[in-house]
Amino acid sequence: MELNEGIRNRQKFIGILKEVFRKSIHLCSAFVPSLLSVWYMPVMALLFAALVLYSASEFLRMTGHPVPVVSSITAAAARKRDENKFVLGPVTLVSGIIASSILWQPLASSIGIYALAFGDGLASLSGKLFGKAHIPLTGGKTAEGSLTCFTAIFISCFAACVSSGIENSSSVALIIASVGMIIELLPLKDFDNILIPVLLGGISQALLF
User: pTM for the whole thing?
Assistant: First the structure.
């Protein structure tokens, strides 16, 4: 029994480390709006290049030809459900950022990307570390994770609106955070990386412009 408990604890610890590593990439995407405001075309070109190169490296890894460094990082960060499969998360993450940046005005796009970076990123970490109240029909999501998602999106949206001189910042942030929390609850797997920045960016644009 003690041996089994030790194995379970070790597996849980490894899972948390992977989640921290994976979500640190989400958090780093918060830098993208600032970079786009200065070097729009070069940054977009880099995002497209990263998308193509990562996809190519995953196809090579799946066919038994791993790419040094890239394939190792991918394997280290992969969830259990992604083992021996194409790891789709980075593709949807970059695709969501690109789509939001193309479709919406800078402020609206930034709000969508911040929601992805902070809301989705911190929700998963909070759920893994502190989550106890599981929500039915959500694929294991927790109330703690959802509240973290709402709070992170509200704060990031409110800050973005205030810094841009938006008068009804709190109302906009409340709507965006509420919708973002609902999306995060859906069992979308990696496709929330696209839906969150695109949908929340679109709603932000409708509310602000």
Answer: 0.88
